Each structure stands twice: as structure tokens, then as C-alpha cells.
Amino acid sequence: MTAHLSIFGETSIVIDEELGSDAKAREALLDRAMGAGRKRKSSEKLRRGRLPSAGLAFVARSGFGTLIGSVRLWDVSCGDKPMLLLGPLAVETSVAGRGIGAALMRHAMMRAAELGHGAIILVGDAPYYARFGFSAAKTAGVMMPGPVERERLLGCELRDGYLDGAKGLLIGRGTRAARRQSCNDAQGAAVSNRLGRVA
Ligand SMILES: CC(C)(COP(=O)(O)OP(=O)(O)OC[C@H]1O[C@@H](n2cnc3c(N)ncnc32)[C@H](O)[C@@H]1OP(=O)(O)O)[C@@H](O)C(=O)NCCC(=O)NCCS
């Protein structure tokens, strides 16, 4: 599913499902936006070696087809509750502040709700994510597999009450990426294959 954005009169920015061929540009964008330490984050332990949740990896493209934004969601569980982990979200600095991050977030959240998911967890800045409905109100019992600043561990319910009583260690439960490929190549290829099947 593709969403066309009209940002400051420019209609050519597109939010689209990620393709296998996006892997290299996506990783380069994430390196620029998040820095070299991004792979040492606790969230990364829930993602490493796994594929994003089916149908929930998105890119923003400019009118020239250049990848300028990325967001991905991952299957995790907390206790016996399945939920999604969102991240990273990143937008190219040269087009920051034009609503592309918000468009990626809203598109990803809408698709996650349509696919029947109950809640999304993320680690990020509450002043940014509050506008999408994220807060730390129901994440007190949620534990990350590594250090985290509690005020940055945020949740948003896609189904009312889904995070009530959420308690336990977050565990990655996404499909494992193929071992013989590099993680990124494998993620991209599998996303592409999935898209091919549903197209
Ligand atoms: C955070 C990020 C995705 C926002 O993308 P964007 O396309 O610039 O966002 P939007 O245009 O939708 O929103 C811009 C607004 O968010 C605010 N904002 C951006 N980052 C913020 C933050 N960390 N905390 C609070 N507000 C923030 C901007 O000041 C701006 O506010 P305004 O609307 O009042 O002017 C982008 O800045 C980015 O890639 N940052 C580096 C990576 C990162 O930190 N990702 C989030 C953690 S996973």
C-alpha cells in the first residue's frame, strides 16, 4: 500500500513498503541518522537476526526515488502478550521538519492496526512520540533485554486496554533471517519476497 504525501505543496513524496533493493540505502541512512552506536542499543537485541513484522517495514521516497526515510516494526512479546517494537525511525536531515517522520509513523501505525496488532512499544523521546499517542503510562512492567531509560520506554495501544497489566521481559519473536546471507541482505530479500507474494 502506497501513500502519496502533499508536503508544502510538493506531492511527489511517497510512503511505500520497503523493498529488498532498499537495504543498502536504508542502512546508510540509519548510520547517518543514529550514529555508529545504533547497533549496541538494547532494542537491537530484539531485532538482530530477525525479519521485520510482515508488511510493516516502510520507506519514504523523494520524487527522484531516493530513500529519505525509514521505519520498521518488529514482532516481540511481553510475558505472553504479542506486540510490536517500532524502530528505528529516521528521516534524512536535509528534509527534516517537513512532516515525513510523522507521515511514516502514522502510516505504520495505521497498517499495524489494520493487521490486527494490539500495541506498539518503542524506546525514544516522549516529546516527539507523544503526538502519536505514545506514553510511559502503561510500560512500567515492561522490561528491555538491556539498559533503558524508563521515561523513554513508551507504548501505544492499537486496541483499547491491550497494555493493561503488561509485565515481563520483551522477547524477540520475529521470523529468523536466513543465516548464510548478511542480516541486512536477508531482511531486504525476505521483505521483497513477501511483497512479491501479496502483490
Ligand atoms: C526524529 C525524526 C525521525 C523526525 O523526523 P522529521 O521528518 O523531521 O519529523 P516531523 O517533520 O514529522 O516532525 C518535526 C517536529 O518534531 C520535532 N522533533 C524532532 N525530533 C524530536 C525529538 N527528538 N524530540 C522532540 N521533538 C522532536 C521537531 O522539532 C519538529 O517540531 P515542530 O513540528 O514543532 O516544528 C528525525 O529527526 C530523525 O531521523 N532523527 C534522528 C534519528 C532519531 O532520533 N530517530 C528517533 C529515535 S528512533
Strand % is 25-35%
In total, how many domains does the architecture comprise? 1
CATH topology: Aminopeptidase
Major β-sheet profile: 9 strands, mixed
Number of helices: 5
Say how many strands there are: 9
Distance between the termini: 9 Å
Using only C-alpha atoms, the radius of gyration works out to 16 Å
- Described by its quaternary structure, the protein is single chain
- Backbone shape: globular
Assign the CATH architecture: 3-Layer(aba) Sandwich
- Supply the helix-strand structural class: alpha+beta
At the fourth CATH level, what is the homologous superfamily? Gcn5-related N-acetyltransferase (GNAT)
Helix content range: 25-40%
Pick out the low-confidence regions.
185-199
* Average pLDDT rating: 89
The helix-strand sequence is EEHHEEEHEHEEEH
> Ligands in the structure?
coenzyme A
Short synopsis of the structure:
This protein is an alpha+beta fold and 199 residues long. Helices cover 27% and strands 29% of the residues.
Summary tags:
199 residues, alpha+beta, Aminopeptidase, nine-stranded mixed sheet, 5 helices, globular, binds coenzyme A
Question: How is this structure best described in words?
Answer:
The protein has one domain (3-198): Aminopeptidase (3-Layer(aba) Sandwich). 27% of the residues lie in helices and 29% in strands. The protein has helices at 23-34, 42-47, 100-114, 126-129, 183-198; strands at 3-7, 10-17, 57-61, 67-78, 81-91, 119-123, 142-143, 153-157, 168-172. Strands 1, 2, 3, 4, 5, 6, 7, 8 and 9 form a nine-stranded mixed β-sheet that branches. The longest helix is centred in the last third of the chain and has 16 residues, at 183-198. The radius of gyration is 16 Å and the shape is globular. The structure holds coenzyme A. Coenzyme A is lined by residues 33-34, 87-91, 96-102, 124-125, 127-128. Coenzyme A (COA) binds next to helix 1, strand 5, helix 3 and helix 4.
